[in-house]
Amino acid sequence: MSVGSPMVARLGLANFLRQSRGGRTAAQAAAVAGFSKATLSRVERGETSISPGDTQRLLQYYGVPDDVAETFIELAYAAKKPGWWQRYKAAMPDWFNLFVGVETAAHRIRTYEADLIPGLLQIPEYTRAIAEQDIPAPGSTAEIEEAVSLRQRRQEILTREDAPAQLSAVINEGTLRRRVGGPDVLRAQLEHLLATCEQDNIDLRVLPFAVGAHPASYGSFVLLDYTVVDTDYALAYVEYCGGAIYLEAEEEIALHSATFDGQQQRAASPEDTKELIKDALEQTG
């Protein structure tokens, strides 16, 4: 079974196990699987994987038909496979693993960025300038280059042959003016943005200063939409200094979706966005 990422396999299996348990207590289910109630709780939240054998025992206990159970036992195998991003340990904190794992399999990504160009649209020089500030001193050149390589690898989801992800991005006008890496890097970054505007799977819009107050004044966020075994899921991601918050509750997803829609409606049209980028280019000097 191909699910695009071991992380989404784990999450899809976690959701199915949680729903299938029904009215049975966590203690009863954990005893059947042969592990603690705390371990079952982590499994059902998608925080840790579960073996195919334990998956089979739980599904039998829950009364799941064999043909359905087989699909989710395959998910347990898929969840055990290493993700490509695991080789970038030096450049990726533990709390970012979930984001990259879901992003890799996402079919739609919606993001509002208040201060920087979205990572999926950054050129290497722009990323490098950020990494030089993000990595605690004394950061090595190798660590910085690994951070750049990771971000470039993540961008492959936009150009993959098999159903590239759809990216909808709204960026604050200030991101076009902030001279990350200096004027030459900013100029190259803005030229890259103009080029990405021509890709069919990318919808980039700038939120002009003239809009004034707006619903996302609290900061940036990302919405990731993905599918596991014909079931659609969404994850909202909000980053802060030293960590991130992941939101999956229906009401949280609805709130962030409505906020993003509002930002997109207030933003300049795709054509006007190009003009704003060109204006910023002219002012880089």
Automatic annotation (TrEMBL):
It comes from the Bacteria. The lineage of its organism: Bacteria, Bacillati, Actinomycetota, Actinomycetes, Streptosporangiales. It holds the Pfam family DUF5753. InterPro entries: Cro/C1-type_HTH (IPR001387), DUF5753 (IPR043917), Lambda_DNA-bd_dom_sf (IPR010982). This is Helix-turn-helix transcriptional regulator. Residues 17-68 form the HTH cro/C1-type domain. CDD domains: HTH_XRE. It comes from Nocardiopsis suaedae. SMART domains: HTH_XRE.
